[in-house]
Amino acid sequence: MTTEGLSINSPVTQLLSYIGIESRRNGYQYWKDNQYAMHDCTCMGESWGFVWFRTSGCIQERRGSCIYCKYGTGPFFNDEQIIDGFKAALSGITKNYDFLFASSSGSLLDIREVSQDVYLNYLELLSLTDHNSFGFETRCETISSERIRQTQEKLGGRLRQVFMGLEIANESILKYCLNKQQNLDRFAGAIKILANEGVSSCVNVLVGIPFYSIEERIQLSFESVKWAFDNEAYRVFLFPINVKDHTPLSFLFGSKLYSPPSLWEMIEVMKLFPDKIDEKKIGISWYRPHKDVPGIIHSPITCRKCNADVLNLLDKYDKNPQFSYIQQLSNIECSCKNKWNEDKSALKCFSVDYLMESYQELSKRWDKTNSYYIANHESIRNELKAMEKKLKGYK
């Protein structure tokens, strides 16, 4: 294993970033063959359209970040190719939406992915459409007052929502369990910038964090939703983890070192926020299997007996959130739900030893000699031990 080119001072981050790069190396590149992706739905009682146009993908993914993510990194595309892809995407839309989410295949405001020239073209093309409002996704560190103000001006005040991936409100868990470098103060600052410019922040929170028991995962998701609202996020979307091929998480899943979330886990988190749900402040995403999306090897389910009923109620919730749907879901009786309740405390709780075991297995899979892990074993353990309380959720 070589860590050349990874300018990272943490042995853990070097190891996980190398594994992240290697695991995705031979994965299917959706954007090599497709200029855009799109779908639409009824969400929050409105018509929502979604369009993603191709770029060279998320910069952080190219560096090996995010053990669960596969944003579809593609080959390099020049500005003209990117703009042509967005034009093709817009031409595929046949109606006007209450809200159109139009974003790149990575992080829209990252100038290394979407140049200023491309972005200005993007704004010009959007401004010519008749959709009621717009939004996109980007990382918190790419948000500035100047760019949001520029966007609002070009779109005639129609920029309504910006989506950001919080994942989990614990910097140590982000770093050591997800390999995502994120500063929570900066994230909170981005929420404030958006609010000051009259734009709503939509914060994505994961359900099913690896290396924790189900009970711990529910608590972590709960605390993250609460953190988002405490920091004045407008809305939170829950994302139950889908396992994607050619990611470190898919190897952990195949090696029985990761147990993906059931839909019961997401429902359990939702039960904790009755008031926010009735205010339409909590949405859900990726709770259904997406057979048209390549590379997903496991999606959250319940069981064959009750899954259709559960999905039917979640679909109703997705269209128009009401806590009464969550109460109906809670009242469903099924043997799979009983088994899930038994498993809640049966899965391994977080421990440094468990994390070290998983690191070692990942290392052996992508570094045949396991040389880096062996040479840095003590440094990695010491680094984790120093962060153990924070990894266990203590402030």
TrEMBL record:
Residue ranges constituting the Elp3/MiaA/NifB-like radical SAM core domain according to the UniProt record: 48-272
InterPro entries: Elp3/MiaA/NifB-like_rSAM, rSAM_sf
SMART domains: Elp3 (SM00729)
One of the record's GO molecular function terms: catalytic activity
Name used for this protein in its record: Elp3/MiaA/NifB-like radical SAM core domain-containing protein
Protein species of origin: Maridesulfovibrio hydrothermalis AM13 = DSM 14728
